[in-house]
Amino acid sequence: MFSFANSIKKYFLDMHIVDYPDPDIKEICYWLKEYMHCKNSYISYRTVTFRFFLWTHRQNIRLNYLQRKNVLDYISFIQNPAPDWCGTCRGFENPDWRPFKKSLSPASVYHNIKILRQMFAYFINSGYLKRNPFFLNIKYHSIIKERFIDRCLTRDECMLILDYAKNLPVHSDGELERKIRINWILQLLLYTGGRKTETNSANMGDLVYIDGRLWLRVLGKGNKMGDIPVLKCLEHSLNEYRAFYGLPLISRRKNDESHIPIIIKSSNNNDYERLNATHLCYIIKKLCGSLADSIDDEILAKKLRKVSPHWFRHTSATLQVEAGVDVHIVQQNLRHSSINTTMQYVHTSKNQQHDETLQKFTF
Question: What is the 3-state secondary structure (H, E, C) of the chain?
């Protein structure tokens, strides 16, 4: 199956190829081309559509014959994919790449179905298909009952992770560099609330001063630029991180630094290698997994093993609101177009909900 997958990956990697061997591949690639200008969306959509195509190929179903029951079968499949479809994290170009690392979470299932529904709508508008089997109302609530539940860390849990990272043992120069990097990553994710793709693609040159204030300029969804305030504590950590690589204080730099990634994997004679998004996820997973193995609290350990980079985005939003930052400012910091989206990221604890209501809702 995956020898076939590797043989057709080139069509999903090189959008300039015209001799598509299959009309379904051709149309999918034409749809993907619409997102070439937005790298992050393109990479995400490519994975979703490629594994969907592999599934239809294995089922011997053409897109124009896809029925509602096939859609429901696919939803069941991605919630529990076959073992041979799963593997460790690999880049899309790697021959050992697999469509899944494990079963998709309810939020990921929801995300996948929305993308495929959008793609089929495109096929209908282009005249390739006559009907959209994803268009009929799918009971999303049955797929994703608790989309954002338990994807947030408390302040104490954040401090536990940060303290654990600060006390990692060092026995070599390589371990020292990894320790410095993971501490920088944790604070960067926590204090900016940036998406992993935004963080991963940012450069030192994206740190800009405006009226004497330091900002991180990121390219978000839909190629929209956004500015995130850099806290003093984060600026201090940034300068410590830069010092390790022989870079000056951010306030004293004089040269263009657009070639220096904000998260450096390695450096050699002013040649800096970027850490990719997959490796970023691996670092967070490994750190929190190791911390989970070191504690006796089974409930907390189970939660820590689920932590991903995106948890820090939820956590940052929640801690900002708890600190008294106006929710509309938090919306700007997270670069959400709708306040409703921001509120999905804010996890008010039951204790705070009770105390706030008790203290403030009086007559």
Answer: CHHHHHHHHHHHHCCCCCCCCCHHHHHHHHHHHCCCCCHHHHHHHHHHHHHHHHHHHHCCCCHHHCCHHHHHHHHHHHHCCCHHHECCCCCCCCCCCCCECCCCCHHHHHHHHHHHHHHHHHHHHHCCCCCCCCCCCCCHHHHCCCCCCCCCCCHHHHHHHHHHHHCCCCCCHHHHHHHHHHHHHHHHHHHHCCCHHHHHHCEHHHEEEECCEEEEEEECHHHCEEEEECCHHHHHHHHHHHHHCCCCCHHHCCCCCCCCECCEEEEECCEEEECCHHHHHHHHHHHHHHHHHCCCCHHHHHHHCCCCHHHHHHHHHHHHHHCCCCHHHHHHHHCCCCHHHHHHHCCCCHHHHHHHHHHHCCC
336 domain residue, yes or no: no
Query: CB neighbours (10 Å) of residue 269?
Result: 5
Report the CATH number at residue 68.
1.10.150.130
Q: Give residue 99's domain range.
A: 2-143
Q: Does residue 100 sit in the same domain as residue 163?
A: no
Mean pLDDT, the chain, rounded, equals 87
Residue 120 is assigned to a structural domain of this protein? yes
pLDDT at 178 over 80: yes
Region of 10 on the Ramachandran plot (φ > 0 left; ψ -120 to 50 alpha; else beta): alpha
Query: 149 near 108, Cβ under 8 Å?
Result: no
The CA distance from 202 to 81, in Å, is 34
**276 in the same domain as 161:** yes
> pTM of the full predicted structure?
0.69
First-residue to last-residue Cα distance in the chain:
68
Rounded Cα gap, residues 149 and 308, in angstroms: 14
**pLDDT digits 0-9 by tens, 252-294:** 999 999 999 999 998 888 889 998 888 899 999 999 999 999 9
Structure tokens at 3: 């020898």
Residue 28: pLDDT band by 50, 70, 90 thresholds? Answer: very high
Same domain, 77 and 174: no
- Choose between 144 and 233: higher pLDDT: 233
